[in-house]
Design brief:
Helix content is about 80%, strand content about 0%. With about 300 residues, the chain is mainly α. Helix 1 crosses helix 11 (about 255-270), helix 3 packs across helix 8 (about 185-205) and helix 4 (about 100-110) packs parallel to helix 7. The longest helix is centred in the C-terminal third of the chain and has 31 residues, at about 275-305.
Length: about 300
């Protein structure tokens, strides 16, 4: 087996890239909430975020000289998975921002690794790692701290954020087990944006929720969000994975929910109770355990080969 050697410089570059990517993803919820105040909403943000990303991704495909076409036989499964990952996840998560703080929504959304673990075990017969069960307990305990802090519409926001985690888990499992695993990252990003644009446009027109009459400030923040997620975030994640590997990158990216809480406090002045902060710690512990024990089980399997 050929082992790739990673230099300390590569590790440093990858770690910095993953850190900046996490900060880029983490700051966007606060910016989205500001755009909401200027006339945007979850449907409009889902539509415009994908729309502004498409020209950038097309330009990247031209520069990198790869085709955006995918095999016809892969289209049905690809579209089905993308419907959850690029449209429903974004729509539901962005909707939760109207009812609860972006920090709370971000942390609740980050229960998706636990759902991915359960999906892998029960749907795809993945090996049960005892450490992952411990992670599940931490995750459930962390989520439970949020159900006592909000009532009324806050309860709806909690449900929406939790459902977004479920949809995102479907997206990740699809990336691993569907035809999407054959696409390169930019092809995936392109079709993800395309499905988001088409889905949000159709839903917005049907419900009358696609509002393009926004303030100049809201448009500026919308463009910034699209740039941070589709250009900065995705590109730097690719650099991080290339330089220090997917496992190390995913662990560093645990900074995203923490940065979501931080920027919610810094930009929007949001607060969290002591119980909620404890919940953040428990959920992040759960995510770290899922990642670490997953990596350990994979390495053990590879060593047996």
């Amino acid at each position: 087996m050929k082992i790739r050697m990673t230099s300390s410089k590569d590790m440093l570059v990858g770690a910095v890239a993953a850190t900046v990517a996490s900060l880029a993803f983490g700051v966007t919820p606060a910016l989205i909430k500001i755009a909401y105040a200027g006339g945007s909403n979850s449907v409009t943000m889902t539509f415009t975020r994908g729309l502004f990303a498409l020209p950038v991704l097309i330009a990247i495909s031209r520069i990198k000289r790869f085709s955006l076409r995918i095999p016809k036989k892969s289209i049905p499964s690809t579209l089905a998975v993308l419907l959850f990952g690029s449209f429903l996840t974004t729509l539901v998560l962005y909707s939760s921002y109207a009812y609860i703080s972006v920090g709370m929504a971000t942390v609740l959304h980050y229960i998706f690794p636990v759902i991915v673990m359960l999906g892998g075990i029960f749907l795809f017969h993945e090996h049960v790692v005892p450490g992952k069960i411990v992670a599940l307990i931490f995750g459930i305990a962390g989520v439970s701290t949020f159900f006592t802090s909000s009532g009324g519409q806050g309860g709806l926001g909690i449900v929406l954020a939790a459902v977004s985690a479920l949809f995102y888990a479907v997206w990740l499992l699809g990336l691993n087990y569907s035809a999407l695993r054959m696409l390169n990252p930019f092809q995936t990003a392109f079709y993800s944006s395309l499905v988001a644009v088409v889905g949000a446009f159709a839903y917005g027109v049907a419900t009358g929720k696609l509002h393009l009459d926004m303030t100049a400030q809201a448009w500026i923040y919308t463009v910034i969000v699209s740039f941070l997620i589709s250009v900065v975030g995705v590109s730097l994640l690719k650099v991080a994975v290339d330089k220090c590997g997917a496992t190390t990158t995913s662990i560093i990216c645990m900074l995203e929910p923490i940065s979501g809480v931080f920027f919610g406090w810094l930009i929007l002045g949001e607060t969290l109770s002591t119980a909620n902060i404890a919940g953040c710690v428990l959920i992040l512990t759960s995510v770290v355990l899922v990642t670490v024990f997953g990596a350990l089980s994979k390495n053990k399997a590879e060593n047996k080969c």
